[in-house]
User: Fold this.
Amino acid sequence: MSKEKLIDVNDLATYFHTEEGTVKAVDGVSFEIYPGETLGIVGESGCGKSVTSLSIMRLIESPPGKIENGEILFNGKDLTKLNQKQMRKIRGNDISMIFQEPMTSLNPVYTVGDQIMEAILIHKDVSKKEARQEAIDMLTKVGIPLPEQRVDEYPHQLSGGMRQRVMIAMSLSCDPQLLIADEPTTALDVTIQAQILELMNSLKRQFGMAIMMITHDLGVIAEVSDRVAVMYAGKVVEYADVKDLYGDPKHPYTWGLMYSIPHIEKDLERLEAIPGNVPNPLNFPEGCKFNTRCQFATDKCRVDEPELEEVEEGHYSACWHVDKLEEQKAKQGRG
Assistant:
């Protein structure tokens, strides 16, 4: 893996100014992605995962949304400083995105071939005939049978798994350096989900691109990621190598997520759960935003917000009481 950062997000803040108040959807998020690696971003719905990805793509609708602070360095160039014409040259070409729902992301009145060809014709100097052949080649690479026939079909004629493969083909048609995958396996059954994840890993190796994988599914993250950023209430609360994070989580929220997953060996035991609800983004609690749901919270947590700090080499956590978490894990015999 290259030591040169492909993308470096620093203190990113994206707010939505509404009649009810200001929603701080992303509030001081920082991370980096290197060429050829997969960064997983995980968290509950509403934690800011998708807004982070849309901020990178500069697709935040304004008004009401606005990137208020921070920088998004892509190959050393700050994307927040580019105008829309400059961003259009990057979107779909250098940075591509798979959106959450393929049925609504694909245009129902155009064939899948036309939609793949559109990106190719915009970003590459090729004829329409050459673009069509490239579209067929991409459908072949993502494992769609009879690509010469499917290229002329409409989205409604394809299954959910095939539509997702078409979205991947569209995203990779211009050989992007970074692929952002926002919940790419949502609404797919387990078998198709496994095929899509295997396909993405295979294409990553083939194309040498980096992937930013956004999901609420810890199983997906474990399957494909090299490093993981855990988000809660618009912030990154833990950031580490995937093996370190899964083997020894250093934030109470991550720990709660890990042990709310069903395990075969637990048989019919009642699942553990994180108490309470995700706070209203219009009225986040003072101090640590997780303090209303955290068993280790103290008065300090309710007043002062912890910064993301390195607690072990390469392992970062935003928590005042990592020591209490370690004591609890030791009591329960959990790493």
Remarks:
- The longest strand covers residues 22-33.
- The longest helix spans residues 190-207.
